[in-house]
Design brief:
Strand content: 15-25%
GO molecular function, one term: L-glutamate N-acetyltransferase activity, acting on acetyl-L-ornithine as donor
Pfam families: ArgJ
Number of strands: 15
Strand order of the largest sheet: 13-12-11-14-10-15
EC number: 2.3.1.35, 2.3.1.1
Largest sheet: 6 strands, mixed
Number of helices: 12
Oligomer: single chain
Distance between the termini: 6 Å
Order of helices and strands: EEEHEHEHHHEEEHEHEHHHEEEHEEH
Keywords: Acyltransferase, Amino-acid biosynthesis, Arginine biosynthesis, Autocatalytic cleavage, Cytoplasm, Multifunctional enzyme, Transferase
Enzyme class: transferase
Length: about 400
């Protein structure tokens, strides 16, 4: 949408000060993909030796860029790598034209950077079903390549925004054998967010050395506890991707290192939470903790049923402690539950237990919890040791306004 949106009330105070990741450089430009004068293309170029891992939307209508990236993963790292991202148009549901656009862009990046086309990854985000004006992007690639700078990650974060109201970044510093490894990432995402292998655009870079297969396995595992545990509106994108690039420039081998894995998870969790905090029209950040389920998988099913319920989300928007809607969501989830073993709390306020409202519950206590900007809903199934945590936001009138006006 052309007009700017007010910054989310849940946004961080400012964009973080991200560390320089040696071995990768960035540039951004205004190509006029959808709007004139708006920065909408970013290029990242990685040095030889960079391992690249990725997870992608499992939508059955995946875009041409996603299919191309999936086909290229696992290639030799000796020639380096590049990532080109545009906003304003998703290049999805565009048939053979979409494939042509990807080929034209990757060829142009390869020519300008000297990186083989099979190591050039692209992504597009924006409106579905409109041909990508790739010639506008191609015309900017030489300019982008000439402007590459290792300090320009914040500009790249801004270039990939669509309905986002703030640029998203996060970082971590990890000590390994007396040396410091750096991790920095950016993300875009605000709507069409539901967990199914990274339903947004996320790019994370580290100067650690990690073998590609190990990096891929680690990324997928952590994704299931972070990006695959968030939802804004239950809709899974056709286009979006999560890529992790390890340049190895620090000389520190982090393959299989627990401290590195923990640092990576902190960055991914931070970015995933920022996506929820920028949920279209969001005014509340909601954490749903499910315990006592028959299995961890069941706990996640219950958590997402609650997080995706329009009735739960609108009650939260209206600051109504309507615990009956939580009961409804649990009952419809399809995972194991027993009404008479169930307990529900809003924050530390016990609302319901043993199939009935708690005898100590007072409506004003629940209402006080609902007035908070950050809300925790706790559910214990009383069936086993399964547990999961998911994150969501409320559903407001502004969400409708943003999406009713999205293509105008």
């Amino acid at each position: 949408m052309a007009k700017s949106l007010p910054v989310s009330p849940l946004a961080p105070a400012s964009f973080p000060d991200l560390p320089v990741i040696k071995g990768v450089r960035f540039a951004s430009a205004a190509a006029g993909v959808k709007y004139q004068g708006r920065t909408d293309v970013m290029l990242a170029v990685m040095d030889p030796g960079t391992s690249v891992a990725g997870v992608f939307t499992r939508s059955k209508t995946r875009s041409a860029p996603v299919l191309d990236c999936q086909a290229k993963l696992g290639g030799a790292a000796d020639a380096g790598a590049a990532i080109l991202v545009n906003s304003g148009n998703s290049n999805a549901f565009t048939g053979h034209y979409g494939q042509t656009s990807v080929a034209e862009i990757t060829s142009a990046v390869a020519e300008a950077s000297g990186i083989p086309a099979e190591r050039v990854f692209t992504a597009s985000t924006g409106v579905i079903g409109e041909p990508l004006p790739h010639d506008r992007i191609v015309a900017k690639i030489s300019e982008l390549n000439d402007a590459l700078d290792e300090t320009a990650l914040e500009g790249a974060a801004k270039a990939i925004m669509t309905t986002d109201t703030f640029a998203k970044g996060a970082s971590a510093m990890v000590g390994i054998e007396g040396k410091t490894v750096k991790i920095a990432g950016i993300a875009k995402g605000s709507g069409m967010i539901a967990p199914d292998m990274a339903t947004m655009l996320v790019y994370i870079f580290t100067d650690a050395k990690v073998e590609q297969a190990a990096l891929q396995a680690q990324l997928a595992e952590i994704c299931d506890r972070t990006f695959n545990c968030i939802t804004v509106d239950s809709d899974t994108s056709t286009s979006d991707s999560l890529m992790l690039c390890a340049t190895g420039a620090s000389g520190v081998d982090a393959t299989g290192n627990a401290e590195f894995a923990a640092g990576l998870e902190r960055v991914m969790l931070d970015l995933s939470h920022q996506v929820v905090r920028d949920g279209e029209g969001a005014t509340k950040f909601v954490e749903i903790q499910v315990t006592g389920a028959a299995s961890d998988a069941d706990a996640k099913v219950h958590g997402l049923a609650i997080a995706n319920s329009p009735l739960v989300k609108t009650a939260i928007a209206g600051e109504d402690p309507n615990w009956g809607r939580v009961v409804m969501a649990i009952g419809k989830s399809g995972a194991a539950a027993d009404r008479d073993l169930l307990s529900i709390s809003f924050g530390d306020v016990l609302v319901a237990e043993k199939g009935w409202v708690s005898p100590d519950y007072k409506e004003e206590l629940g209402a006080t919890e609902m007035k908070k900007q950050e809300i925790t809903i706790k559910v214990d199934l009383g069936l086993g040791s399964g547990q999961a945590t998911v994150w969501t936001c409320d559903l407001t009138h502004q969400y409708i306004s943003i999406n009713a006006d999205y293509r105008s």
